[in-house]
Amino acid sequence: MIESLIAFLSETGFALILQHPRNLVMIGVGLGLITLAIRKNYEPLLLLPIGFGMIMGNLPGAGASPDDGGVMELLYYGVKHEVYPPLIFLGLGAMTDFSALLAQPKLILLGAAAQVGIFATYWGATQIGFTPQEAGAIGIIGGADGPTTIFITAALAPELLPAVAVAAYSYMALVPIIQPPIVRLLTTREERLIHMKAPRTVTKAEKIMFPIVGFIVCAAVAPKATTLLGMLFFGNLLKESGVTDRLANTAKTAFIDSVTIILGICVGAGASADRFLRPESLKIFALGLIAFSVATASGVILGKIMNWMSHEPVNPIIGAAGVSAVPMAARVALTTAQREDPTNFLIMHAMGPNVSGVIGSAVAAGVLLSILG
Q1: Is residue 59 in a domain?
Q2: Which 3-state string (H, E, C) describes 277-320?
């Protein structure tokens, strides 16, 4: 009886965790993400599942890591084989209103400018020893688009997927911390006080035509991203057509929520200590921060240039929303402007570059896949 009890105790998580101290570190990281989600409200829909999945995947003997087989390995199939990102994009398209972009088409340039961070970081990563494929996966973090990051990393550098995915979602959640100091550094108070003219009203016909024409044009430019772009624009067509409300409502609520839960748990569970605690992971997090910072700065700088050249005033703050963390980046642009003037409502203007950033990051991913795949 005593021998059986000892054998049982030796196989419990309490005993096994002492033999795997690195797993304790990852459990601590998971608890940190959960804390940020609950106490700071930083992207809780993402960080809470990822943090809990990280705890699950790092409990020794639990069999909850994708490497252990079983149910989690089956669920992780959707991460490794690029199933979940297009499904997320379907729901995202059904949630997105492109009116702000259609009302001011020039704002698409700000979304394009933010993609500079992707290609600048790609170059930087190749200079410190990463292969071109690995550099492409790391650079896409600058787009601040978790599903696109998973999509391209699974295709180009699957061995980096845990670190790259966690870095991408972490920086998406930290938008309110990272972006405001960069905006204030690159703009004057006079620029931050700029009020922009109210955008024109967009017709229903424009809203219906945009996902069709937009998809054809973008897929022609970046055919490797057709799956992502197609699901994004199709989801938006469901919303704007006015005849598929049931499908659109399902896509933007229960459907995307279900996929988000599974994706978050899988991303967290895949970040096991053996995979995650490597020198390369620290480099990835550092490069990811650089990518995100350069993307933010590029959008703001182009916003300043547009303000100088345009007949109508452009508040450079909205350039920071060119990263595709929707709608967090647009909300941060709003709150940053309202710190200077509470009556300055930039949200509709910021949504233009924000939604164009979603398209831009997917196109950038398609370009990288075409070159490196």
Answers
A1: no
A2: CCHHHHHHHHHHHHHHHHHHHHHHHHHHHHHHHCCCCCCHHHHH
Identify the pLDDT of residue 60.
80
Side chain identity, residue 87: L
Q: Write out the residue range of the structural domain in which residue 319 sits.
A: 64-372
Q: Please state, in angstroms and rounded to a whole number, the distance separating the CA atoms of residues 371 and 101.
A: 29
Residue matched to tokens 């599942």: 49
Are the beta carbons of 223 and 363 closer than 8 angstroms? no
Quote the pLDDT of residue 173.
Answer: 84
Q: Report whether 67 contacts 232 (CB < 8 A).
A: no
Sign of CA dihedral 274, 275, 278, 282: negative
What confidence score (pLDDT) does residue 129 get? 92
- On the 0-12 / 13-18 / 19+ scale of CB atoms within 10 A, 218 is buried
Pick the closest to residue 87 from 241, 228, 212 (CA basis).
228
pLDDT of residue 208 exceeding 90, the answer is yes
* Residue 269, domain member (yes or no): yes
Please give the distance of CA 351 from its chain centroid, rounded to a whole number.
16
**DSSP secondary structure of 172-222:** HHTHHHHHHHHHHHHS-HHHHTPPPPPPPPPPHHHHHHHHHHHHHHHHHH-
Q: Mean pLDDT over all residues of the chain? A: 90
Torsion of CA 144, 150, 153, 159, to 10 degrees: 120
**pLDDT value at position 10?**
54
The domain tally of the chain equals 1
Answer yes or no: is 129 within a domain.
yes
Supply 357's token pair: 């950033």
In a domain, 120, yes or no: yes
Using 50, 70 and 90 to split pLDDT, how confident is the model at 326?
A: confident
Question: Could you tell me the pTM of the whole model?
Answer: 0.91
The string of pLDDT tens digits covering residues 282-311 is 899 999 999 989 999 999 999 999 999 988
Alpha-carbon distance of 201 to 102, in angstroms, equals 9
Q: Name the residue with tokens 């921060």.
A: 289
Provide the pLDDT confidence category of residue 146 given band limits of 50, 70 and 90.
confident
